[in-house]
Specification:
It is a single chain. The protein is of the alpha+beta class. It is built from 17 helices and 17 strands. Strands 5, 6, 7, 8, 9, 10, 11 and 12 form an 8-stranded antiparallel β-sheet that branches. A 5-stranded parallel β-sheet has the order 15-14-13-16-17, with helices on both faces. It starts with 38 loop residues before the first strand and ends in a 6-residue tail after the last strand.
Protein backbone atom coordinates (compact mmCIF):
# COMPACT_ATOMS: atom_id res chain seq x y z
CA UNK A 1 0.00 0.00 0.00
CA UNK A 2 1.48 3.34 -0.95
CA UNK A 3 1.64 6.28 1.37
CA UNK A 4 -0.50 9.20 0.21
CA UNK A 5 1.05 12.60 -0.15
CA UNK A 6 0.53 14.72 2.93
CA UNK A 7 -0.42 18.34 2.54
CA UNK A 8 -2.25 18.83 5.78
CA UNK A 9 -1.41 20.41 9.13
CA UNK A 10 -2.19 17.21 10.98
CA UNK A 11 0.34 15.18 9.02
CA UNK A 12 4.11 15.06 9.53
CA UNK A 13 5.87 15.12 6.19
CA UNK A 14 9.53 14.23 6.72
CA UNK A 15 9.49 10.81 5.15
CA UNK A 16 12.82 9.74 6.57
CA UNK A 17 11.52 9.85 10.13
CA UNK A 18 9.21 6.86 9.83
CA UNK A 19 10.56 5.09 6.78
CA UNK A 20 11.39 1.43 6.76
CA UNK A 21 14.96 2.09 7.76
CA UNK A 22 16.69 0.17 10.49
CA UNK A 23 16.04 1.01 14.09
CA UNK A 24 18.89 2.45 16.13
CA UNK A 25 21.75 0.02 16.01
CA UNK A 26 24.38 1.58 18.20
CA UNK A 27 22.00 2.68 20.93
CA UNK A 28 18.68 1.92 22.49
CA UNK A 29 16.23 3.74 24.68
CA UNK A 30 16.28 3.53 28.43
CA UNK A 31 14.01 5.39 30.77
CA UNK A 32 14.82 6.70 34.20
CA UNK A 33 13.00 5.32 37.24
CA UNK A 34 9.92 7.51 37.24
CA UNK A 35 7.24 7.67 39.92
CA UNK A 36 4.20 5.66 38.90
CA UNK A 37 1.75 7.98 40.68
CA UNK A 38 2.10 11.69 39.98
CA UNK A 39 -0.73 12.83 42.20
CA UNK A 40 -0.17 14.64 45.46
CA UNK A 41 -1.85 12.95 48.45
CA UNK A 42 -2.81 15.16 51.42
CA UNK A 43 -3.37 14.18 55.06
CA UNK A 44 -7.07 13.59 54.49
CA UNK A 45 -6.27 10.91 51.93
CA UNK A 46 -7.74 12.86 49.01
CA UNK A 47 -5.71 13.01 45.86
CA UNK A 48 -5.28 16.48 44.44
CA UNK A 49 -4.43 17.63 40.93
CA UNK A 50 -1.51 15.98 39.22
CA UNK A 51 1.78 17.83 39.54
CA UNK A 52 4.73 17.75 37.14
CA UNK A 53 7.67 15.73 38.48
CA UNK A 54 10.63 17.73 39.68
CA UNK A 55 13.13 15.92 37.48
CA UNK A 56 13.11 15.17 33.81
CA UNK A 57 10.32 12.79 33.02
CA UNK A 58 11.64 11.17 29.91
CA UNK A 59 15.37 10.91 29.40
CA UNK A 60 16.54 9.21 26.27
CA UNK A 61 20.04 7.90 26.86
CA UNK A 62 22.48 6.30 24.52
CA UNK A 63 23.85 3.08 25.88
CA UNK A 64 26.85 1.82 23.95
CA UNK A 65 26.77 -1.81 22.92
CA UNK A 66 29.69 -3.92 21.98
CA UNK A 67 27.72 -5.74 19.31
CA UNK A 68 25.25 -4.28 16.91
CA UNK A 69 21.91 -6.05 16.60
CA UNK A 70 20.17 -6.46 13.26
CA UNK A 71 17.04 -4.35 12.79
CA UNK A 72 13.83 -5.90 14.05
CA UNK A 73 10.95 -6.11 11.59
CA UNK A 74 7.79 -4.28 12.55
CA UNK A 75 5.23 -6.57 14.14
CA UNK A 76 1.91 -6.44 12.36
CA UNK A 77 -1.05 -5.64 14.56
CA UNK A 78 -3.86 -8.15 14.87
CA UNK A 79 -6.71 -8.11 12.37
CA UNK A 80 -9.09 -6.96 15.10
CA UNK A 81 -6.95 -3.92 15.95
CA UNK A 82 -6.47 -2.98 12.30
CA UNK A 83 -10.17 -3.39 11.60
CA UNK A 84 -11.27 -1.39 14.64
CA UNK A 85 -8.94 1.47 13.70
CA UNK A 86 -10.10 1.39 10.10
CA UNK A 87 -13.76 1.37 11.07
CA UNK A 88 -13.44 4.54 13.11
CA UNK A 89 -16.08 7.04 14.18
CA UNK A 90 -15.85 8.73 10.77
CA UNK A 91 -16.92 5.55 8.98
CA UNK A 92 -19.52 4.75 11.65
CA UNK A 93 -21.15 8.15 11.11
CA UNK A 94 -21.00 7.68 7.35
CA UNK A 95 -22.48 4.18 7.54
CA UNK A 96 -25.32 5.21 9.84
CA UNK A 97 -26.33 8.22 7.75
CA UNK A 98 -26.17 6.39 4.43
CA UNK A 99 -28.07 3.32 5.70
CA UNK A 100 -30.85 5.40 7.23
CA UNK A 101 -31.25 7.41 4.04
CA UNK A 102 -31.00 4.26 1.95
CA UNK A 103 -33.89 2.74 3.87
CA UNK A 104 -35.86 5.94 3.31
CA UNK A 105 -35.23 5.86 -0.44
CA UNK A 106 -36.24 2.19 -0.61
CA UNK A 107 -39.50 2.82 1.26
CA UNK A 108 -40.22 5.84 -0.95
CA UNK A 109 -39.48 3.88 -4.13
CA UNK A 110 -41.89 1.15 -2.99
CA UNK A 111 -44.46 3.85 -2.27
CA UNK A 112 -44.64 2.69 1.36
CA UNK A 113 -43.50 6.04 2.74
CA UNK A 114 -45.46 8.81 1.09
CA UNK A 115 -43.76 11.89 2.53
CA UNK A 116 -40.42 11.68 0.66
CA UNK A 117 -42.19 11.05 -2.63
CA UNK A 118 -44.11 14.29 -2.20
CA UNK A 119 -41.31 16.30 -0.60
CA UNK A 120 -38.22 14.65 -2.11
CA UNK A 121 -36.47 17.99 -2.61
CA UNK A 122 -36.97 18.81 1.07
CA UNK A 123 -35.26 15.57 2.15
CA UNK A 124 -32.41 16.13 -0.30
CA UNK A 125 -31.97 19.71 0.88
CA UNK A 126 -32.04 18.62 4.52
CA UNK A 127 -29.14 16.26 3.90
CA UNK A 128 -27.13 18.82 1.96
CA UNK A 129 -27.87 21.42 4.62
CA UNK A 130 -26.39 19.22 7.38
CA UNK A 131 -23.45 18.22 5.15
CA UNK A 132 -22.45 21.85 4.69
CA UNK A 133 -23.15 22.91 8.26
CA UNK A 134 -20.88 20.38 9.99
CA UNK A 135 -17.97 21.39 7.72
CA UNK A 136 -18.47 25.12 8.22
CA UNK A 137 -15.51 26.72 10.01
CA UNK A 138 -17.64 29.15 12.00
CA UNK A 139 -20.00 26.41 13.17
CA UNK A 140 -17.00 24.22 14.00
CA UNK A 141 -15.47 26.90 16.20
CA UNK A 142 -18.79 27.16 18.07
CA UNK A 143 -18.87 23.40 18.66
CA UNK A 144 -15.28 23.31 19.94
CA UNK A 145 -15.92 26.32 22.17
CA UNK A 146 -19.01 24.65 23.63
CA UNK A 147 -17.19 21.38 24.37
CA UNK A 148 -14.08 23.08 25.80
CA UNK A 149 -16.17 25.37 27.99
CA UNK A 150 -18.73 22.90 29.31
CA UNK A 151 -16.78 19.65 29.55
CA UNK A 152 -13.28 20.66 30.63
CA UNK A 153 -11.77 18.00 32.89
CA UNK A 154 -14.78 17.19 35.13
CA UNK A 155 -16.81 14.59 33.14
CA UNK A 156 -15.72 10.92 33.03
CA UNK A 157 -12.81 10.25 30.69
CA UNK A 158 -14.92 8.09 28.35
CA UNK A 159 -17.28 11.01 27.79
CA UNK A 160 -14.47 13.47 27.03
CA UNK A 161 -12.84 10.98 24.68
CA UNK A 162 -16.20 10.63 22.96
CA UNK A 163 -16.45 14.41 22.54
CA UNK A 164 -13.02 14.54 20.89
CA UNK A 165 -13.86 11.59 18.66
CA UNK A 166 -17.13 13.16 17.51
CA UNK A 167 -15.51 16.52 16.77
CA UNK A 168 -12.61 14.94 14.91
CA UNK A 169 -14.85 12.72 12.79
CA UNK A 170 -17.63 15.16 11.87
CA UNK A 171 -16.47 14.58 8.32
CA UNK A 172 -18.31 11.26 8.42
CA UNK A 173 -21.60 13.14 8.81
CA UNK A 174 -20.50 15.59 6.12
CA UNK A 175 -19.71 12.82 3.62
CA UNK A 176 -22.70 10.67 4.55
CA UNK A 177 -25.21 13.51 4.22
CA UNK A 178 -23.64 14.72 0.96
CA UNK A 179 -23.84 11.26 -0.62
CA UNK A 180 -27.38 10.80 0.72
CA UNK A 181 -28.48 14.20 -0.55
CA UNK A 182 -27.05 13.27 -3.95
CA UNK A 183 -29.02 9.98 -3.88
CA UNK A 184 -32.24 11.82 -3.05
CA UNK A 185 -31.59 14.24 -5.93
CA UNK A 186 -31.25 11.27 -8.29
CA UNK A 187 -34.49 9.87 -6.92
CA UNK A 188 -36.22 13.22 -7.43
CA UNK A 189 -34.94 13.59 -11.00
CA UNK A 190 -36.01 10.00 -11.73
CA UNK A 191 -39.56 10.75 -10.54
CA UNK A 192 -39.66 13.87 -12.74
CA UNK A 193 -38.39 11.89 -15.72
CA UNK A 194 -41.03 9.18 -15.19
CA UNK A 195 -43.73 11.86 -15.01
CA UNK A 196 -42.09 13.96 -17.73
CA UNK A 197 -45.38 14.43 -19.59
CA UNK A 198 -46.68 16.52 -16.70
CA UNK A 199 -43.42 18.26 -15.78
CA UNK A 200 -41.75 21.22 -17.45
CA UNK A 201 -38.48 20.69 -19.31
CA UNK A 202 -36.80 23.47 -17.32
CA UNK A 203 -37.38 21.62 -14.05
CA UNK A 204 -35.89 18.41 -15.42
CA UNK A 205 -32.94 20.32 -16.91
CA UNK A 206 -32.11 22.04 -13.63
CA UNK A 207 -32.50 18.73 -11.82
CA UNK A 208 -29.88 17.17 -14.07
CA UNK A 209 -27.57 20.20 -13.75
CA UNK A 210 -27.89 20.17 -9.95
CA UNK A 211 -27.22 16.45 -9.74
CA UNK A 212 -24.16 16.77 -11.98
CA UNK A 213 -22.70 19.64 -9.92
CA UNK A 214 -23.16 17.76 -6.64
CA UNK A 215 -21.65 14.61 -8.22
CA UNK A 216 -18.49 16.49 -9.29
CA UNK A 217 -18.19 18.06 -5.83
CA UNK A 218 -18.46 14.62 -4.18
CA UNK A 219 -16.00 12.89 -6.54
CA UNK A 220 -13.41 15.64 -6.12
CA UNK A 221 -13.64 15.18 -2.34
CA UNK A 222 -12.63 11.52 -2.40
CA UNK A 223 -9.56 10.83 -0.20
CA UNK A 224 -7.35 9.86 -3.15
CA UNK A 225 -8.10 13.12 -4.97
CA UNK A 226 -7.80 15.23 -1.84
CA UNK A 227 -4.48 13.74 -0.71
CA UNK A 228 -2.73 13.53 -4.08
CA UNK A 229 -4.27 16.35 -6.15
CA UNK A 230 -4.95 19.14 -3.68
CA UNK A 231 -5.58 21.87 -6.24
CA UNK A 232 -8.00 19.69 -8.22
CA UNK A 233 -9.86 18.90 -5.01
CA UNK A 234 -10.06 22.50 -3.89
CA UNK A 235 -11.22 24.00 -7.18
CA UNK A 236 -13.83 21.39 -8.00
CA UNK A 237 -15.08 20.62 -4.50
CA UNK A 238 -15.48 24.27 -3.63
CA UNK A 239 -16.73 25.86 -6.84
CA UNK A 240 -18.94 22.99 -8.01
CA UNK A 241 -20.23 22.81 -4.44
CA UNK A 242 -21.13 26.50 -4.49
CA UNK A 243 -22.73 26.17 -7.91
CA UNK A 244 -24.60 23.07 -6.70
CA UNK A 245 -26.09 25.11 -3.84
CA UNK A 246 -27.30 27.76 -6.25
CA UNK A 247 -28.66 25.20 -8.72
CA UNK A 248 -30.45 23.30 -5.94
CA UNK A 249 -32.13 26.52 -4.81
CA UNK A 250 -33.33 27.26 -8.35
CA UNK A 251 -34.41 23.63 -8.85
CA UNK A 252 -36.62 23.74 -5.77
CA UNK A 253 -38.18 27.13 -6.59
CA UNK A 254 -38.97 26.02 -10.13
CA UNK A 255 -40.59 22.84 -8.89
CA UNK A 256 -42.71 24.73 -6.36
CA UNK A 257 -43.76 27.35 -8.92
CA UNK A 258 -45.06 24.94 -11.54
CA UNK A 259 -48.71 23.88 -11.33
CA UNK A 260 -49.01 20.24 -12.40
CA UNK A 261 -52.78 20.51 -12.86
CA UNK A 262 -52.83 23.53 -15.19
CA UNK A 263 -49.35 22.90 -16.63
CA UNK A 264 -48.50 26.55 -16.09
CA UNK A 265 -46.18 28.62 -13.92
CA UNK A 266 -47.72 29.93 -10.73
CA UNK A 267 -46.28 33.34 -10.06
CA UNK A 268 -48.19 33.65 -6.78
CA UNK A 269 -45.65 33.70 -4.00
CA UNK A 270 -48.24 32.48 -1.51
CA UNK A 271 -48.27 29.07 -3.19
CA UNK A 272 -44.48 28.81 -3.04
CA UNK A 273 -44.14 29.68 0.65
CA UNK A 274 -46.64 26.97 1.54
CA UNK A 275 -44.26 24.30 0.22
CA UNK A 276 -42.01 22.61 2.77
CA UNK A 277 -39.03 22.32 0.46
CA UNK A 278 -39.12 26.10 -0.06
CA UNK A 279 -38.28 26.58 3.61
CA UNK A 280 -35.44 24.10 3.34
CA UNK A 281 -34.20 26.10 0.36
CA UNK A 282 -34.50 29.29 2.41
CA UNK A 283 -32.52 27.61 5.16
CA UNK A 284 -29.92 26.72 2.55
CA UNK A 285 -29.75 30.39 1.59
CA UNK A 286 -29.23 31.28 5.26
CA UNK A 287 -26.50 28.66 5.44
CA UNK A 288 -24.75 30.37 2.57
CA UNK A 289 -24.23 33.30 4.93
CA UNK A 290 -22.32 30.97 7.27
CA UNK A 291 -20.26 29.80 4.32
CA UNK A 292 -19.45 33.41 3.48
CA UNK A 293 -18.40 34.43 7.01
CA UNK A 294 -14.86 32.94 6.84
CA UNK A 295 -14.42 34.53 3.41
CA UNK A 296 -15.35 37.92 4.83
CA UNK A 297 -12.22 37.60 6.99
CA UNK A 298 -9.82 37.08 4.07
CA UNK A 299 -6.93 39.54 4.34
CA UNK A 300 -3.57 40.08 2.71
CA UNK A 301 -1.17 40.23 5.64
CA UNK A 302 2.50 40.78 6.22
CA UNK A 303 4.65 37.66 6.51
CA UNK A 304 8.32 37.05 7.28
CA UNK A 305 9.82 33.83 5.97
CA UNK A 306 12.77 32.05 7.54
CA UNK A 307 14.38 29.20 5.60
CA UNK A 308 16.62 27.34 8.05
CA UNK A 309 17.09 24.40 5.64
CA UNK A 310 15.98 23.27 2.18
CA UNK A 311 13.31 21.10 3.82
CA UNK A 312 11.45 23.69 5.85
CA UNK A 313 10.14 27.25 5.68
CA UNK A 314 9.04 29.04 8.87
CA UNK A 315 6.37 31.71 8.32
CA UNK A 316 6.00 34.45 10.93
CA UNK A 317 2.75 36.43 11.27
CA UNK A 318 1.57 39.13 13.63
CA UNK A 319 -0.75 38.45 16.63
CA UNK A 320 -1.01 35.47 18.93
CA UNK A 321 -3.34 32.50 18.74
CA UNK A 322 -4.98 30.07 21.09
CA UNK A 323 -3.70 26.52 20.78
CA UNK A 324 -5.21 23.95 18.44
CA UNK A 325 -6.02 26.29 15.55
CA UNK A 326 -5.05 25.91 11.92
CA UNK A 327 -4.46 28.60 9.32
CA UNK A 328 -5.15 28.64 5.60
CA UNK A 329 -2.78 30.64 3.40
CA UNK A 330 -2.60 31.32 -0.34
CA UNK A 331 -0.95 33.46 -2.97
CA UNK A 332 -4.46 34.23 -4.23
CA UNK A 333 -7.48 35.62 -2.43
CA UNK A 334 -9.71 32.78 -3.65
CA UNK A 335 -7.71 29.85 -5.03
CA UNK A 336 -5.28 27.25 -3.70
CA UNK A 337 -5.50 27.65 0.05
CA UNK A 338 -3.23 25.37 2.06
CA UNK A 339 -3.73 24.59 5.75
CA UNK A 340 -0.98 24.51 8.40
CA UNK A 341 -0.99 24.23 12.15
CA UNK A 342 -0.31 27.46 14.03
CA UNK A 343 2.42 27.81 16.65
CA UNK A 344 1.92 30.53 19.26
CA UNK A 345 2.85 31.23 22.86
CA UNK A 346 -0.70 32.39 23.56
CA UNK A 347 -3.48 34.74 22.54
CA UNK A 348 -1.57 37.72 23.90
CA UNK A 349 1.65 36.90 22.08
CA UNK A 350 2.94 39.24 19.39
CA UNK A 351 3.40 36.58 16.73
CA UNK A 352 2.40 33.14 15.53
CA UNK A 353 4.27 30.81 13.22
CA UNK A 354 3.61 28.15 10.59
CA UNK A 355 5.96 25.28 9.74
CA UNK A 356 5.76 24.49 6.04
CA UNK A 357 7.48 21.38 4.73
CA UNK A 358 9.01 22.22 1.35
CA UNK A 359 7.52 19.61 -0.99
CA UNK A 360 4.85 20.81 -3.42
CA UNK A 361 4.86 23.74 -5.81
CA UNK A 362 3.21 26.05 -3.29
CA UNK A 363 5.70 25.49 -0.48
CA UNK A 364 8.65 25.50 -2.87
CA UNK A 365 7.46 28.89 -4.06
CA UNK A 366 7.64 30.20 -0.49
CA UNK A 367 11.39 29.50 -0.60
CA UNK A 368 12.29 30.29 -4.21
CA UNK A 369 10.07 33.37 -4.49
CA UNK A 370 9.44 34.42 -0.91
CA UNK A 371 6.49 36.81 -0.59
CA UNK A 372 6.36 39.75 1.80
CA UNK A 373 2.57 39.51 2.05
CA UNK A 374 0.24 36.55 1.73
CA UNK A 375 -3.51 35.93 1.77
CA UNK A 376 -5.06 34.27 4.79
CA UNK A 377 -8.39 33.92 6.52
CA UNK A 378 -8.28 35.70 9.84
CA UNK A 379 -10.88 33.23 11.14
CA UNK A 380 -8.85 30.12 11.85
CA UNK A 381 -10.45 26.71 12.10
CA UNK A 382 -10.10 24.30 14.99
CA UNK A 383 -8.27 20.99 14.87
CA UNK A 384 -8.42 18.02 17.20
CA UNK A 385 -5.70 19.55 19.41
CA UNK A 386 -8.15 22.26 20.39
CA UNK A 387 -9.89 19.73 22.66
CA UNK A 388 -6.70 19.29 24.71
CA UNK A 389 -8.26 21.76 27.16
CA UNK A 390 -10.77 19.14 28.33
CA UNK A 391 -8.05 16.72 29.55
CA UNK A 392 -6.14 16.86 32.80
CA UNK A 393 -2.92 15.59 31.26
CA UNK A 394 -1.86 14.48 27.83
CA UNK A 395 1.02 13.69 25.51
CA UNK A 396 1.58 15.23 22.09
CA UNK A 397 3.57 12.93 19.77
CA UNK A 398 4.74 14.30 16.44
CA UNK A 399 7.29 13.65 13.73
CA UNK A 400 8.96 16.12 11.39
CA UNK A 401 6.83 19.06 10.34
CA UNK A 402 3.94 17.62 12.35
CA UNK A 403 5.36 19.77 15.14
CA UNK A 404 3.45 22.69 13.60
CA UNK A 405 0.12 21.25 14.70
CA UNK A 406 1.42 20.05 18.07
CA UNK A 407 3.71 22.61 19.66
CA UNK A 408 1.14 25.26 20.67
CA UNK A 409 -0.68 22.79 22.91
CA UNK A 410 2.49 22.15 24.90
CA UNK A 411 3.58 25.80 24.91
CA UNK A 412 0.26 26.99 26.33
CA UNK A 413 -0.46 24.22 28.83
CA UNK A 414 1.89 22.85 31.51
CA UNK A 415 -0.16 19.65 31.55
CA UNK A 416 0.97 18.48 28.14
CA UNK A 417 4.16 16.59 27.34
CA UNK A 418 5.90 16.74 23.94
CA UNK A 419 7.60 13.88 22.11
CA UNK A 420 9.13 15.11 18.86
CA UNK A 421 10.99 12.77 16.53
CA UNK A 422 12.84 14.38 13.66
CA UNK A 423 16.05 14.52 11.67
CA UNK A 424 18.69 17.06 12.68
CA UNK A 425 15.93 19.13 14.29
CA UNK A 426 17.74 22.27 15.35
CA UNK A 427 19.48 22.68 12.00
CA UNK A 428 16.43 21.67 9.95
CA UNK A 429 13.86 23.81 11.78
CA UNK A 430 16.08 26.68 12.82
CA UNK A 431 16.58 28.84 15.93
CA UNK A 432 13.05 30.25 16.07
CA UNK A 433 11.32 26.92 16.68
CA UNK A 434 14.16 25.57 18.82
CA UNK A 435 14.08 28.76 20.86
CA UNK A 436 10.36 28.41 21.59
CA UNK A 437 10.86 24.83 22.78
CA UNK A 438 13.84 25.61 25.01
CA UNK A 439 12.20 28.74 26.40
CA UNK A 440 8.90 27.19 27.44
CA UNK A 441 9.45 23.45 27.79
CA UNK A 442 11.77 22.27 30.50
CA UNK A 443 13.44 18.86 30.29
CA UNK A 444 10.62 17.45 32.41
CA UNK A 445 8.09 18.16 29.63
CA UNK A 446 9.83 17.31 26.40
CA UNK A 447 11.62 14.46 24.67
CA UNK A 448 13.45 15.42 21.47
CA UNK A 449 14.77 12.53 19.40
CA UNK A 450 17.23 13.46 16.65
CA UNK A 451 17.17 10.44 14.36
CA UNK A 452 20.22 11.66 12.44
CA UNK A 453 22.41 12.15 15.49
CA UNK A 454 21.29 8.84 17.04
CA UNK A 455 21.53 6.82 13.86
CA UNK A 456 17.82 6.04 13.57
CA UNK A 457 14.51 6.32 15.28
CA UNK A 458 13.72 5.07 18.78
CA UNK A 459 11.45 2.26 19.87
CA UNK A 460 8.61 4.73 19.54
CA UNK A 461 5.89 2.69 21.20
CA UNK A 462 8.05 1.92 24.22
CA UNK A 463 8.80 5.62 24.50
CA UNK A 464 5.09 6.46 24.29
CA UNK A 465 4.05 3.76 26.78
CA UNK A 466 6.60 4.83 29.36
CA UNK A 467 5.75 8.52 29.00
CA UNK A 468 2.01 7.79 29.17
CA UNK A 469 2.39 5.86 32.42
CA UNK A 470 4.81 8.20 34.15
CA UNK A 471 3.20 11.46 33.05
CA UNK A 472 -0.18 10.23 34.22
CA UNK A 473 -1.67 11.11 30.84
CA UNK A 474 -5.30 10.61 29.90
CA UNK A 475 -4.86 10.77 26.15
CA UNK A 476 -2.29 10.93 23.36
CA UNK A 477 -2.56 13.09 20.23
CA UNK A 478 -0.45 12.01 17.25
CA UNK A 479 0.65 14.04 14.24
CA UNK A 480 2.76 12.05 11.84
CA UNK A 481 2.99 10.76 8.31
CA UNK A 482 0.93 7.77 7.19
CA UNK A 483 3.36 5.08 8.32
CA UNK A 484 4.19 6.72 11.64
CA UNK A 485 0.55 7.36 12.45
CA UNK A 486 -0.34 3.74 11.63
CA UNK A 487 2.39 2.29 13.85
CA UNK A 488 1.65 4.46 16.87
CA UNK A 489 -2.14 4.16 16.62
CA UNK A 490 -1.93 0.37 16.38
CA UNK A 491 0.50 0.25 19.28
CA UNK A 492 -1.69 2.48 21.45
CA UNK A 493 -4.78 0.42 20.61
CA UNK A 494 -3.00 -2.78 21.56
CA UNK A 495 -1.77 -1.23 24.81
CA UNK A 496 -5.19 0.19 25.71
CA UNK A 497 -3.98 3.79 25.51
CA UNK A 498 -6.56 6.36 24.31
CA UNK A 499 -5.09 8.03 21.23
CA UNK A 500 -6.18 10.23 18.35
CA UNK A 501 -4.11 10.28 15.18
CA UNK A 502 -4.11 11.82 11.75
CA UNK A 503 -7.15 11.29 9.54
CA UNK A 504 -6.60 10.28 5.93
CA UNK A 505 -10.21 9.81 4.84
CA UNK A 506 -11.98 13.09 5.56
Amino acid sequence: MTTPFADDPEKGTLEDVFSSTARTESSHTTVSNWPTDLTETHHDGEKKAELPPAQALVQVKEVATSKRSPPKPNKQASLWIRTSLWYNTYRKFFTFVVIMNGIGILLAALDVWKYPRRYTAAVALGNLWVAILVRNEFFGRILYLFVNTCFAKWPPLWFRLGCTSVLQHLGGIHSGCAVSGFAWLIFRVTLIFIDHANEHDAILAFGVITTFAVAVSILSGLPWVRNTHHNVFERHHRFFGWFGLFATWVFVILGDSYDLETHSWNSNGIHVVHQQDFWFALGMATLQVLIAIPWFTVRKVKVEIEVPSPKVAILKFERGMQQGLLARISRSAVLEYHAFGTISEGKDAKHHYLICGVQGDFTKGLVNDAPTHIWTREMKFAGVSNTSAIYKRGIRVCTGTGLGAALSTCLQSPNWYLIWIGSDQEKTFGPTISGLIHKHLGPERVCLWDSKARGGRPDTMQLVKDAYKSWGAEVIFITSNWQGNKEIMEGCKEAGIPAFGTLWDF
